[in-house]
Design a protein that fits this description.
With about 650 residues, this protein is α/β, with parallel strands linked by helices. Helices cover about 50% and strands about 10% of the residues. The termini are far apart.
Amino acid sequence: MRSAERDMGSGNILFGKWADFIRYLLRDLLETANNSGGEWQISEYKTSENLKRFEELSNLMLCLDDGLKSIFELFHLNDFERFCLVLGCLFCEDFFARELILQLHGDFENGLLLSFCQTIFCVGFSVTGNIQVEPLRMRLLGLEWRSGVEVFFPNVLVRNFIKGVNCLEASVPGLLLLDLRSTKQHWFASSAQGKLKDYLTKIQGLKTGKHLLVLRGGKLVGKRTTIALAAKENGVAVLLVDLSIFEGVDAEQIKRLACDVCLLVVLNDAWLCFENLGADSEAKKVFGFFVNAVKRYVSFFCLLTSERLDASEFIGSYTLFELSWGCLQGKENILCWRYFLDKYDVRFKGSDLVARRFRFVVGQIEQVVKRIKLLDNPETSQILKICHEVSGENFKDKAKRLEGLFTWDDLVVTEDCEEALRTICDLVKFENIVYEDLGFERRMAYGRSVSALFFGVSGTGKTMAAQVVANEIGLPLYRVDLSQVISKYVGETEKSLNDIFDIAKKSNVVLFFDEADALFAKRTQVANSNDRFANVETSFLLQKVEDYSGVVILASNLLVNFDEAFKRRIKVMVQFALPDEEMRLRLWVRVFPEQVDTAQLDMQYLAEKFEVSGSMIKSAALLATFFATREKSPLTMDHVLNALKNEMSKSGQLVLDTDFGL
């Protein structure tokens, strides 16, 4: 579109034969004025010869400079607007023309009086009356009011375009250039990007109509990169307008900025994109200014948003297409990891396993890979730590992290219980292979969550088992604090739990609900409003558990407290029973650290005589050690039996000294 041959050495800008004709006209006008004693009249100047010259204007347009001709065509300028623009550019860029104009009309304080253009134009054309142009073309021509006088001074963006100067990098507040045309960045296969490519191909094939594309997603999902890569495939750049910076800006200033942005978009054949359109009326008003400025000249623009917005009041004749995405799933996730690992030349063992384990958005994956690159020979533990930090786990007071300190060797449970726990781990480890590689994803439209119910009497190892599972699958474990969740106010409990599940989904953590029957209780007959709301809460939670894409572990002392419908939705049911004699012996042997001298203890007697839970054994061992430390003596059976008596009393059991041989 731009002419490569511009004679700028002499300070002149060439507009072809029409510019030559205007220079001739100015000289002729000045000569006429001089011959008439310094003043010239329109009636005296309307000669048949000059009228004939003006009639040749349409033919002269064919000889215009490419840049100027493009502006005429892009903005559909009428004859008078073309005349004003050329005359104004000559005034700014052509020394000879400027001197002629100043001699004819004096100094206009860096502006050209509109009346002067009308006077000259009317010399050869019929009287046009007052100029009526829309805001964008007024900005293009430079029309404005100064001290009550309407003047124009052609927009510098337009003058630079005509001169062949790249104005894409022009400094316009709130404008960011996204240009990936010169980079090697490319798509990584994802369903969202595939849908976007199909949509862009479709509207290109139509070649008509106006289209608004809305890309919706949270932070770091890659909205900017996606639209920039789409533009790259179409050979254009993207001009991104941040609407948030215009808060409190004068409306007239916003209108001028909107016109400048539109000029850049149209002159450079770029894509126009907006972001940070909030729900408040001020942001919508600003967006409305921009849409009104571009609607005649821009047939396609894009809106990036993190929330669902009603854009119907703005789009008018535009056809709306909305595309949303968030965390990557399955193969898309692995492909994205591989993309950034190749981009930053990062290699580590088990990268695909890490990719399957964490559900990140695009930006988070890039952050992780960048941080891994800074490490020398990164270990798996370091990589997992980075992943957890980037996930941004922030439950505030609603859930607290439990460190995964325990392994399978620390867990003393029945064989059936251990097998069920390992099944939970397998459901996580092989999820992508079974659902995606083996095709079960098409047969299971929903319900991919890994949910487990741990039930059994208190102290049988349910919390420890949750820690072991989380440690095995390499995910952080968060115990939900029910005191911060359950509320007496209608809807507050659901809101709190909804927040917890949303954060967990982004962070990919294991949620652990201890004493879960307080939340997931059996639904009852509706006798009053409290019953009705309780049932609503239970149904809501059942749905959240089923929809959650991660791991949820529920623990309860009594299985009978749970609704039958709830039990059917649980993937794995794990029963924790009181340990038998053999298990109790293993617990007594393992409970004392190596530093504690247990030579005087009869572990077999303790396991055989006292039918207690694992937690009671652990508490008794700790208390007995305190007794021995207080007395500055080795640990004895008396210490252990006294501690055990204390623990059994706390649980409400009837104990006699004779039972302990005391």
